[in-house]
Every structure is written in C-alpha cells, then in structure tokens.
C-alpha cells in the first residue's frame, strides 16, 4: 500500500491524534489538531532553578542565559543585593514560557535539603543548576542528592572562570589556560567526591563569555537529558553563542516546518476559495517573525546587540540582505517577496482553481500547498539565518565568515525560486499519478 506522503511526515513523530484524523480523511479536524500542536509546542513551559550563594554569579548567569547583559531592562539585579528567601522568576524576553528562577543558596536558607526543595516548589522545576564561584559545599551535595532521589536532573556550574584564569596568570610563571582549567575542574570534582557525590560532572563557565569554556557542553547535556517535548523550548531560548548552537537552533526550527506546511496544506484542502492563500500568508508572517526573534535579528534584539557591542544599529541592519530585514515582517513584506517571481503567483492561482476539480482537486491542492509552504519556509529560514550570521560577524568585528559555516548550502534568491518551482512541479506530477 502506497503511504500518503503527508501522513508519512507524521509517522516518525508518532503523533497519534493528528495521524488518526488524517487516516480518517478528516482534513478539517487534522488541521485543527496541528494548529493546537503548533501552539502548544511553542508554549511548553520550561522552568530552570538556579541556586547558589549570594555573590556566586547566579543573577549574571540568569541574565546571560536569557541573552541579556546585567544592564539590560528586565535583567536580574546583580552586584550587592540583599538576599531574600524568595524564589525570583525571570522569564526569557522572547520566550516567556522559559523561566529561570533565582533561588537563595541552601546554606543561607538553613533548611534541610528536602524541606528547601519543598519550600521553593520542587515539582515546578524541570532541572536545577547549582552554582558556585569557588568550591561546592556539603549542603550543595546534600541538595544534589535529594534532587537525584526525587528523580530530577541537576548540573554543577563553576562560574567566573575568566577571572579565575586571570588570577592564575598573574601568579604562575608557566601559565597555561588548559592546565589551569583542568586543575579547577579537578578541585571541584574532588571536593564534591569528598562530600559524598559519586561521579560528579562540573561545568566551567564565564557568564561574560558563554562562547568559551563549557557552556556549549552544558547545553548539550541538558538537551540530551530533557524529555523531547521540552528540548525545543530550550533550543529556541538559548543564546546563539557559536556555530554548534546556531545549527542546533536551525534544526529545531526546521523540524517544525513540516507541521506549519501540513497545517496550511490541510486548510487548503477545505474547499473555501481564497482561504488557503490567506492562511498561507498568516502562517508565513507568524513563522518568519519567530525565526527573527529566535536568531536575534528582530528589532529589539538588534538594538540590544548594538548597545552591548557599541556598534550603531544602522551598521548591523546594513548587513541584513534578506527581504525580511524590515522591522516587522507583515503580509505586505511576504507578498512582495512572493511577487519577485510571477510563477509563484500563478501557482497560487492554480491551487485556487484546482480545488474545484472533483476527486483529484482536493489532494492536488493539498499537495501543492504543502510543498510550496514547506519550500518557502525553508528558504526563509535560510535567509534569516544568513542575516543573523552576517549581523553576528559584524557585531563581533570578525572579518571572515569562516567562524560560522552552516550545515546546509546557502542558495541565492534566484536558485531558491528555481528549486521551489521544480519541487512544486514534482509534487504536482506525483500527486496526479498516485491518487
Ligand atoms: P549573585 O549574588 O549570585 O546573583 O551574583 P551576581 O550575579 O550579582 O554576581 C556577583 C558579582 O560577580 C558581580 O559583580 C558580577 O559582575 C560578578 N560576576 C558574575 N558572574 C561572573 C563571571 O562569569 N565572570 C566574572 N569575571 N564576574 C562575574
């Protein structure tokens, strides 16, 4: 039996509700389920607890993790701040479903570990980050063991690595950053073992330079240990500090494209003239604006980057070459983008016409719509990531693009449209002969 290609895209995801609706050929129901799925998928909460002594660098880490500097609006207050016995929530500025919670250190709370966790609402946290800027204490280990007992994950983070290395450099004649890092790690691990932690892993981090040391490793470890439905929330929110994280983010966005495309395809198969194009445009606007904030090239993020790197905003904007560089992507921007090729418009028109062809018309329209939305979104994602890459290179003052190279080939605008057309015709041909 020939497997329907639209259904096949869902089999791997094991998404039973959408599959069932598709199998019963209930396009309207399946479209509604996919819409629900996309909405829920982007609002899955992720709550990360950050605990450590006052002064250990918790607030600075909370800010850096959310892509903020200590001076930005919405930043957690740093420096000397009176310790309170409250858990302070700091939502991510672009992804409010991701919240970092600044918890007082277990030492200053004087609670036993189990009570400490209960007091601050253990259940709501997905995992814990235990921070220290020197060595971990007995209470940190007690807390970790209690978290482990209650079957959640925790990570030991040793902060302020930049200043520790500077200190070492000042006092050592044969200074080697590598050796010093190894020593710091060994000291932390041995300290934890002495307090009763069997085989601890410690991540060495500087919140001022997330691109150095172990932040990448920390992200990979958290990602691996999170349940799959929360993984994307982490990847969307994480600051794009290097090529690996950039590519991971891109992959997370790419994985979502088939749902957006399928949603538009199924809506297209509901025979209401004009609706499909309107929905396509609506989907494109939403999704492209999501890409822009995910890669930090929306207006607000660009302004923040300009401020923190002391570069004029206009200089950063000047290197964005995609049609989506405009402040806010609207339907007009999309229409202009699509109108660059007349063929695109013709095909959209053909889709409108084809839905009236009995039997063949409905799946053909769905097939074309799926293929075109899929290709368009992939093209747009490539364009936005290319903009983001250029902006980052400009902001960091790099003069070569070697620092960032992407997994996928970057196509020129012209090549994109040719590919798009080719794909469309292939799908048309395919759908005609299988249905
Ligand atoms: P909290 O009390 O644990 O929230 O600590 P803060 O985030 O307020 O940090 C205390 C001080 O350490 C501040 O002056 C920060 O600027 C500084 N700090 C925090 N993280 C780092 C870091 O990674 N490197 C360096 N050099 N200083 C840091």
From TrEMBL:
For this protein, the record's InterPro entries field holds: G_IRG_dom (IPR030385), Immunity-related_GTPase-like (IPR007743), IRG (IPR051515), P-loop_NTPase (IPR027417)
Q: Which residues form the IRG-type G domain?
A: 44-225
Q: Which Gene3D superfamilies match?
A: P-loop containing nucleotide triphosphate hydrolases (3.40.50.300)
- Is Transferase set as a keyword in this record? no
Say which domain of life the source belongs to. Eukaryota
Q: Name one GO cellular component term.
A: membrane
Which Pfam family is one of this chain's hits? IIGP
Keyword DNA repair set for record: no
- Provide a Gene Ontology MF annotation, just one: hydrolase activity
Record's keyword terms, sorted: GTP-binding, Hydrolase, Nucleotide-binding
Q: Which family does it belong to?
A: Belongs to the TRAFAC class dynamin-like GTPase superfamily. IRG family.
Name of the protein in question: IRG-type G domain-containing protein
Q: What organism is recorded for this protein?
A: Myripristis murdjan (pinecone soldierfish)
